[in-house]
Amino acid sequence: MVSIISRRAVIISLKVLITVGLLAGLLFYIDINEIKNSISQADPVLLALGSVLVIANTGIHFLRWRYLLRLVSPDISAMDVATSLLVGFSAGFFTPGQVGEIVGRIAGHPDLRKSQVIGMTIIDKVYILAVTVITGIGSLAVFCRLFYPLYWNIVYTILVIVFLLTIAAAMAIPERILPFLKRLPKSVRDHRYYSVIGFIEQTFRNRHARTVSVLSASLYAVIAVQFYIFINAFSGVAFFDTAVSSLSVYFIKAVVLPISIGDLGVRESASVFFFSKFGVPAVSAFNASVCMFIVNVLFPSLIGAVLVLKLKLK
Q1: CA atoms of 124 and 25, how far apart (whole Å)
Q2: What is the pTM of this model?
Q3: Cα–Cα distance between 284 and 16 in angstroms, integer?
Q4: How many CB atoms lie within 10 A of CB 254?
């Protein structure tokens, strides 16, 4: 137990150091006075509108999680769903890729079997990861085609299209994977940890996949719009430029470099890089990215932390 706690303390300490280091590096690159001036001149209406969109952002997370949980517990209440979702946000705040959400969601549903909660969480994570990859790699391909045409050609375009279509097809028809699972050795299928995969195998169908896919895609549509509103509060940017940049940023911070606390520092560094190619001032990209962090990550995590205390009291 002591070694596990020590390992967690080391991981959290490393993430804190990485976060502080990245932010410190950005503050050397961006003058603090520029940040202050940009904030003071920001459009308050757009800042408020971007903040309000946290309702849509968190709301889609809620709809996805409720839909999945009702596959195993049709009568589960909206309050129980919201509690486990927000507790998961809080638990995942310090872990790479927010994997700690699994523990938080289990704690939020003590009446359900762990295999059920873990199975639904895996589906939730896999589908949001798939959409992140599709939108992120697609945006990166467009970005490279625009700014690095000498290193891009039609072969890369074809490979990207085939790859993304393959992922989309796998998302839409997961039942096609079942025959491959049934070919696994009996020793694997009889293992106690396989119960989670077996549960997914028995529960999740193509019609469920299509619903989760649409909700996951809707989440990234909201993210692109929200980023567009926030960055335009500081500097005028076209929606196409914002979509390419923001979706690339979310791919980098969620898939390539999920190494900091709440992705803080990684998100901001990537934002400065991508948006600067479209002529956006570094300070505007930095401030908009911080706004996305505060509204979509920090705020729900704080609510989840309060709910964690209530669960402990129970």
Answers
A1: 34
A2: 0.86
A3: 24
A4: 19
CB atoms within 10 A of CB 97: 15
From first to last of its 314 residues, the chain has per-residue pLDDT tens of 445 455 555 656 666 676 666 666 676 677 788 888 989 999 999 999 999 999 999 999 999 999 998 888 888 888 888 888 888 888 776 665 566 677 777 766 667 777 778 888 888 888 999 999 999 999 999 999 999 998 888 999 999 999 999 999 988 888 887 677 667 676 666 666 666 776 777 788 889 899 999 999 999 999 999 999 999 999 989 999 999 999 999 999 888 777 676 677 788 889 999 999 999 999 999 999 999 999 998 888 888 888 777 665 55
Residue 268: C-alpha distances to residues 203, 219, 282, 291 (Å):
39, 20, 10, 10
Residue ranges of domains in the chain: 42-313
* Eight-state DSSP code of residue 142: H
Q: Residue 171 — φ and ψ, nearest 5°?
A: -65, -40
The most distant pair of C-alpha atoms in the chain lies apart, rounded to whole Å, by 65
DSSP of 194-252: HHHHHHHHHH--HHHHHHHHHHHHHHHHHHHHHHHHHHHHHS---HHHHHHHHHHHHHI
Residue 307, number of CB atoms within 10 A of its CB: 20
**What is d(CA 149, CA 145) in angstroms, rounded to the nearest whole number?**
5
Question: What gap in Å lies between CA 46 and CA 288, rounded to an integer?
Answer: 11
- Give residues with Cβ within 8 angstroms of 178, minimum separation 6: 201
Q: Are 232 and 43 in contact (CB under 8 A)?
A: yes
Distance (Å, rounded) from C-alpha 76 to C-alpha 244? 38
